[in-house]
Amino acid sequence: MAEKIFTKDKLAEFNGQDGHKAYVAVNGVVYDVTDIPEWHGGKHHGNLAGQDLTEALKHSPHGDKVLANLDVVGKLAE
């Protein structure tokens, strides 16, 4: 199966609202956070699903170590 490529507009559709899955992008990789309790409703400590959170993660207390536990669903188009 070919790797899914997300534009920023397409990624925005996966905001965790109204039954949509919740995806976030970090360093060009798109992750599924739908089933992560801390991301309920597509929100987590002021961050919103459906966005590129590369910069936000740089200021996170847990850093990128949490990414290893997430499912990769594709890549963010440059």
Order of helices and strands: EHEEEEHE
Structural category: alpha+beta
Q: Judging from the principal axes of the Cα atoms, what is the shape?
A: globular
Instruction: Measure the end-to-end span.
Output: 21 Å
Count of helical regions: 2
CATH homology superfamily name: Cytochrome b5-like heme/steroid binding domain
Percent helix range: 10-25%
Summarize this entry quickly.
By secondary structure, the chain is an alpha+beta fold. It is built from two helices and six strands, in the order βαββββαβ. A hairpin with a 2-residue loop joins strand 4 (43-44) and strand 5.
Give descriptors for this structure:
Cytochrome B5, Cyt_B5-like_heme/steroid-bd, 78 residues, alpha+beta, 26% strand, 6 strands, Cyt_B5-like_heme/steroid_sf, 4-stranded mixed beta sheet, globular, Flavocytochrome B2, Chain A, domain 1
